[in-house]
Amino acid sequence: MSESAQIISVLKRSLRARGMTYRDLARAVGLSEASIKRVFAQETFSLARLEQFCSALGMSIAEAVRMSAPQTLQTGQQLTIEQEEALASDPRTLSTFYLLLNGHTSAHIAGELELGERELRRILVQLDAAKLIELQPKLKVRLRTSNAIAWRSNGPVRRTYEQQVKSEFLRGNFEGQNELLNFASAELSAASAAILGRKVEALARDFADLAALDATLPNVGKRSMGLLLALRPWVFSMYAGLRRKG
Question: What pLDDT is recorded for position 73?
Answer without folding.
Answer: 42
